[in-house]
Amino acid sequence: MKRIGDVLTTISIPIGPASRTAARADPRPACARCQDAGWVRLEVPVNHPNFGKLFPCDCKIQEQRERARDSLKRLSNLEAFQQHSFDDFDVVEGTEDAYDEVLAFANEPSGWLYLHGGCGVGKTHLAVAAGLHIRRTNQNVLFAVVPDLLDHLRATFDPGRGVAYDDRFNAIRSAFLLILDDLGTENTTPWAREKLYQLINHRYNERLPTIITSNQEHKLIDERILSRLLDTHLTRDIKLDALDYRRRGRADYFRASRR
Questions:
Q1: Res. 19: pLDDT tops 60
Q2: Among candidates 223, 216, 227, which has minimal Cα distance to 183?
Q3: Count of Cβ atoms closer than 10 Å to residue 159 Cβ
Q4: Is 237 in a helix, a strand, or coil?
Q5: Which own/partner contact pairs does 74-83 have at CB distance under 8 Å and 24+ positions apart?
Q6: pTM score, two decimals?
Q7: Strand 177-181 with 39-41, pairing
Q8: Parallel, antiparallel, or unpaired for β 39-41 and 54-56?
Q9: Which residue from 114, 119, 85, 159 is spatially nearest to 245, judged by alpha carbons?
Q10: DSSP designation for 159
Q11: Among residues 238, 242, 239, which one has the least CA distance to residue 93?
Q12: pLDDT, averaged across the chain
């Protein structure tokens, strides 16, 4: 009779894909600082107010930023406007200054831009072009039509899950660049009107880059918002005075027919 040790040495045990993966797995943590826990304690004296407290590790902060960026990208509608670049913009009489101002903002985003004028003059196109340009620098950008954004906030608000809603609202109001399209067209409830004010007031206080477009008269905009919007220390007021692009071809036709 053979000893069991001799028998085992003659048995070939195949290594399957799962076994090979486990064999190749690196047991070392991805983050040497927190050992992948996501939280760290500061090395401070016992009498320090932060002694023993947990703080998010740099790896967790980066993860949160990436998650917020992905969340805003899903919420934003920029993917539908890939043809709205600066190169695609038709610079016509009445839009030259606006084009130059928004392009300069896209290269060095700071302060606010308030783009206003009639329908179809290129306000949204320029705002989106700036958003696409800035997003390529890996910054958080959110583009939202104001009535749609308020509908989204109302639909996702759940008093029983306040923390999740607060996280989403904070991500929206703290985006590196926020583009609010069609301000003044919203038909809001007092709750939604207050949320819109909180959103804009936060960005006003923090001086976060913001672009707002509107084709409405000032009297149709909340006075609290309008006061911040017209602050010349923060906002560049840009009016686009051109013909609706949907009618330009027809206007050219009639001009030519009169010659």
A1: no
A2: 216
A3: 6
A4: strand
A5: 75/142, 75/144, 75/152, 75/172, 76/131, 76/141, 76/142, 76/143, 76/144, 77/143, 77/144, 77/145, 78/128, 78/131, 78/132, 78/135, 78/141, 78/143, 81/128, 81/132, 81/143, 82/132
A6: 0.72
A7: unpaired
A8: antiparallel
A9: 119
A10: G
A11: 242
A12: 82
Question: What is the distance between the alpha carbons of residues 33 and 57, in angstroms, rounded to a whole number?
Answer: 8
- Residue 99 C-beta-side C-alpha neighbours within 13 Å: 17
CATH code 3.40.50.300 for 80-249: yes
In single-letter form, the type of residue at position 119 comes to C
pLDDT at 7: 42
Q: Which two tokens stand for residue 85?
A: 């670049």
**According to the model, what pLDDT value does residue 251 have?**
43
Task: Check the CA dihedral 172-77-155-225 and report its sign.
Answer: positive
- Decide if 102 contacts 115 (C-beta within 8 A): yes
One-character DSSP codes across 184-228? T-----HHHHHHHHHHHHHHHHHT--EEEEE-S-GGGS-HHHHHH
Which pLDDT does position 52 carry in this prediction? 85
User: β-strands 112-117, 210-214: how paired?
Assistant: parallel
Residues 6+ apart with CB under 8 A from 258: none
Residue 135 contacts residue 170 (beta carbons within 8 Å): no
DSSP string, 49-71: TTTT-EEE-HHHHHHHHHHHHHH
Q: Domain spans of the chain? A: 33-75, 80-249
CA–CA separation, 196 vs 115, rounded Å?
A: 18
Mean pLDDT, residues 2-30: 53
